[in-house]
Design a protein that fits this description.
Elements lengths: L1 E6 L2 E7 L5 E3 L8 H5 L27 H15 L3 H16 L3 H14 L36 H15 L3 H11 L3
Antiparallel strand pairs: 1-2, 2-3
Helix pairs in contact: 3-5, 4-6
InterPro entries: Lysozyme-like_dom_sf
């Protein structure tokens, strides 16, 4: 099977072998431009001399989930080190896991604004609560990952899991916080 590829002003033929290996034909074996541009007056069939094989469609190969997880995790972690970035990452996690509506996400922003201002380094000097969600004891976040001290995505993930399991949604957690000053 051959397929023409245009490189600059030169035309190169590419031969694809069944093994998936392909190589370019040297210029001496390439057809003249007259042959390439000539009108076809009769249909080309698989037994005619002009037949060059079935059309090959090239599809982009998507990387596996394992290949994309690390770069995504690293980019999310660096993004979440700022307040705006952390809110954005929470929105992404919400879309992937919870599908809480816009009002619920507003309640989450209000809640964690009061608790830590979305600062992953935040520590309550009195209670020892730690991180964006102000987990108490802080080591509970290790149920998500061992990097809970330095990874804001781990803290956000743990906090959203906690809110879902304990209160059902962020607005219920915010109402509890408003009544008792803790959640």
């Amino acid at each position: 099977m051959r397929k023409g590829i245009v490189c600059g002003s030169a035309v190169a033929l590419l031969i694809a072998l069944p093994s998936g290996v392909a190589y370019a034909m040297p210029p001496s074996t390439q057809p003249s431009s007259a042959w390439v541009n000539r009108p076809i007056t009769t249909p080309v069939t698989s037994d005619s001399p002009d037949f060059i094989g079935p059309r090959i469609e090239h599809r982009a190969v998507e990387p596996s989930r394992a290949q994309t997880r690390t770069p995504l995790a690293v980019s999310r972690m660096s993004l979440a080190r700022t307040r705006v970035g952390a809110i954005s990452v929470a929105g992404e996690l919400n879309t992937e896991l919870y599908q809480w509506n816009f009002d619920q996400m507003g309640c989450l922003v209000d809640l964690w604004d009061h608790e830590s201002n979305w600062n992953y380094k935040s520590i309550n000097r009195v209670s020892g609560a730690h991180g964006i969600a102000q987990a108490l004891p802080a080591w509970k976040m290790s149920t998500v990952a061992k990097d809970w001290r330095k990874n804001p995505v781990t803290q956000i993930t743990w906090g959203m899991n906690y809110i879902k399991s304990r209160y059902g949604n962020p607005c219920n957690a915010l109402r509890h916080w408003q009544q008792k000053n803790w959640y």
